[in-house]
Amino acid sequence: MIDGFRRVGRRLAVGVRRVLRVAKWESARASGGVDRRTLAAGVALLLVAGGVVGVGVATGVAGLDVDQDVYRVGVDAESPYAEAIEDAPSLRPVPAGSASLGDSADAVVVTVVRPGSGDDGSIDAADVDEVVVRASDTQKGEAAAASVREAVASHNERLMRAEPNQTAAFPVVVTLRYVGRTTGVDDGATLGGSNGGSDGGSTDGSDAGTGGGDDGSDGGDGTSGGEGGDSTGDAGSVGSGADSDDDGGFAVPSIGGAAFGANTVGSPGSITPPFPFTSLLLAFAFLVPMNFLIQAYGSSILDERTNRRGEPLLVTPLSPAEIVAGKTLPYAAAAAVVTSLIALLVGGGALSVVAVAPVAATFLGATFVGAMFARSFKELTFVTVGVSVLLTTYAFVPAIFTNVTPVALVSPLTLVVFDLQGEAVSAGEVLFSTAPMAVGAALLFGLGLGVYREEDMFSQKPVTRKFLDALAVRLSAVPVGGAVGGGLLDRDRLRALGSVAFLTACTIPFVFVAELLAVAVLFALPVTVSIPVLLVTIAFIEEVAKSVGLYAGFERGVFERTDRVALAVGLASGTGFFLAEKATAVVQAVGLTDLFLGRAAFADVAGLSGLPPLALAALFFAPLVLHATATSVAALGARRGRTAYALALTLATLGHAAYNVGVVSLG
Amino acid sequence: MIEASGLRKTYGDFAAVVDSDFAVDDGEVFGIVGPNGAGKTTTLKILAGLVEPTDGEVTVAGFDASDPEMRRHLGFLPEESPLYEEMTALSYLRFFADLYDVPREVADERIEAALDRLELDHRERRLGDVSKGMKRKVAIARSLVNDPDVLVYDEPASGLDPVTTNSVLAFTRELRETGKTVVFSAHNLYHVESVCDRVVVMNEGRIVARGSVDGIRERHGETTYRVFTDVEPTATPGLDELDATTEEVGDRFRTTVPSMDAVAAVREAAGDAGGEVVDIRSREPSLEDVFLDIVGRPMPGRYTGDPGGDGTDAESDADGDGDGDESETETARPAATEATE
């Protein structure tokens, strides 16, 4: 036993040593392959990119005002509005007396005081009879007037917050809690919004209560909560008399909204759902270096294939996995270092690094496969751009909805946003968010490794054929001889069918990712549209996942083209998919299936409480019957050729979609 | 040292190697010759464990060819030798020595010895900046960093200039003297003849002849005689039966016959026509003739790439009549010859 462990340990040590040797050489080679000018150009590009991101970040984080002193506003120094105008970055106060609209001022604040007031030289709120803002009749004048409105609103807000008696300042407190729609089918958005508005619709205060000492500055509850107050009642003299709208002037609002981010305090009309702009922008910074990294990595992999340069490596004692691991390690290490640095710079923690790691791995894995399949650097360029766009979209777009819906967790970048917002996430959420990409990355490397051999590496086949080769290499022939029954237990046959089931099971992370992406893409559509489309899309994704390997097996001559073999591999594939699908129970842990679309996509059968055990068992195994049957149909088509496969796949998809409709109806 | 039995490799419907059996003894230089597409490279790659045979078994140095451990005993030189051009010769060779777990001191010793013998200078120059011949030498040195028992060289001298070709072939001969077993492929028969103890001739995936070069020449080539006369020999039934052909060459007539008996018949026929024999020459079969006899088509590259210009038929032009052209003529392919050892 101990000897066994020692042997394994020694083998592991040898493997690690070999990987490190290749990694060391790859690092030296990669650094030696870039001349100084290219390096300088790369650094310059990075600096420019960093500068752009930095400015963006600075704008978001530090409130850097790029619109400083854009509008000139005439206002008397004694006016109660003077302070509001001075405090607004975009406004530059000019003396009202000398202001000329359209010439030396874009807008003028005219304060009409009550007769007899202001004799002492100062005007307070009580002295104001009427306030009118006049703006020049130009677009700039209109924009200036709007800025004045916002400036006054913000000023009011600050005054209210500064009040020692917050109850007096905010007599009515509205608690907002943003929740995703979970049930019901209507013509509204599939997810998001509120439950009839009663939980905090932006204009409704049905959960309102009287303020009781809240200071109005609460940070909210978790991801999206916030507190709002209505200050329209008596917000001070500034706004009180602003409703008049005579001689071209306009009313000054009581409160204004910020450009980004949820307003947690303000009037109901100004409160918007939270949008984590700054965190998103910072999270995006994690993705930028990946694009540079995969260019270098993809080139290095393809370089091995160009002119058979990597052939001598294949006759060394190193296994393909060791070679690939060694070649990948420097890039993975670079990704880790850069990610950690960015996390350090933007205030992220370990969670950010953990979340970005599978994204980086997927970037590298997809690029590796692409570089193994590409026939030229030109093709590789398309591959890397495709990888970059697809993965950036997959990672970034769902993260936009971080504070809106759990669907956002399909992207690990959402965890980064949470991390940057200082919000805690559960282990289940981390697993849900990172596992599909992590497993997907591993499988991508596995797929590429399948063709990391002399026979495939240096051949110039189209990408689709290489893809089929990569799948077929994981399969083995299914023996067809022997009696039925006893033959099923034949070891070779079991092994062959096991490899079919395993290959199909390995597609689950990609199926999962594809389905989540479909959910994310479709969730904004009305349910009446999105649900049918989603059910068919998901059926198609799953049927392709289950049968494409079988098609590869038949096309590459691994499987004998008989109905018997087709049925056997179809059943095996369906079973493999069923078993792997059950492993996605992690979805349940996160609660995605609470969402209507989530249930349509992932729940097998919902609302089954109260059913007898036999019925439950039947329903539990119903997906097995579905997968085995549909995949057998597709396999029967696959064994006959491409056209028959396409037709059979369509048939299987329709059957599967019908089943999905049934499941949703049951729910 | 190497045993191959029932080797078969197919790619879809295409059979690259068909039912190949051969064995290579310790310390032997074994040649595989044949035209492009004959299956030589596929066979070598099967030996090197790079390609898995569809059928058949191969053992190299006592290991199955698919066993990674076998590779420790193998040095492989592919047909093309594109190297990592960012690296220097020294760093490149050290890298490969590392992969074989060769200690640095030992590796440096071996690298120096190989580079010295191959007369490779510019060891610190980037490989992208050195000539093709130099790259080939570096590739050969790479095949030796692990001090292998078996060397598999695929067209080691292909496309090199005559000087480098001679150098590479001489180095290969020396390897035999150091006890290495070398399997060597070439489509240039003269390279094989100058290096190999035994050869197999492959055509369309099959071994069509095997044995020593002399033995194969003996079996598949015939000595012919050219009888030059001042008149055209009179056609006689006896002469026709001897498969003689007569051509007019300048002011003489040349009759080619397969035996000395036939020479006598030509002499007689010339006398009947009122003339006489003015010259008789015998012609040994060239390797080209042998190959033509075996595979039914001439060797590619007959007139290129052979060291010292020995690729041309030494005899064919001796009489200045241009009969070297004959091997450029495509002829119908005869049935593959099942040669014996």
Automatic annotation (TrEMBL), chain A:
Q: Where is the composition biased (Gly residues)?
A: 190-239
Which keywords does this chain's UniProt record carry? Hydrolase, Membrane, Metalloprotease, Protease, Transmembrane, Transmembrane helix
Q: Where is this region: Disordered?
A: 184-248
Q: What GO terms describe the biological role, i.e. biological process, of this protein?
A: proteolysis
> Which residues span the membrane?
39-64, 277-298, 328-347, 353-373, 380-401, 430-451, 495-514, 521-541, 614-637, 644-666
Write out the GO MF terms: metallopeptidase activity
Q: What is this protein called?
A: PrsW family intramembrane metalloprotease
Organism encoding this protein:
Halorubrum distributum
Write the lineage as a comma-separated list: Archaea, Methanobacteriati, Methanobacteriota, Stenosarchaea group, Halobacteria
UniProtKB/TrEMBL annotation, chain B:
Region annotation Disordered: where it falls in the sequence: 295-341
Q: The ABC transporter domain covers which part of the protein?
A: 2-229
Extract the CDD domains matched here: ABC_DR_subfamily_A
Q: Which GO terms describe its molecular function?
A: ATP binding; ATP hydrolysis activity
Please give the InterPro entries that the UniProt record associates with this protein: AAA+_ATPase, ABC_transporter-like_ATP-bd, ABC_transporter-like_CS, ABC_transporter_ATP-binding, DrrA1/2-like_C, P-loop_NTPase
Q: Where is the composition biased (Acidic residues)?
A: 312-329
Pfam families in the record: ABC_tran, DrrA1-3_C
What keywords would UniProt list here? Answer: ATP-binding, Nucleotide-binding, Transport
Q: What is the originating organism of this protein?
A: Halorubrum distributum JCM 9100
Q: Which Gene3D superfamilies match?
A: P-loop containing nucleotide triphosphate hydrolases
**Family from the record:** Belongs to the ABC transporter superfamily.
Q: What is this protein called?
A: ABC transporter
Composition-biased stretches (Low complexity): 332-341
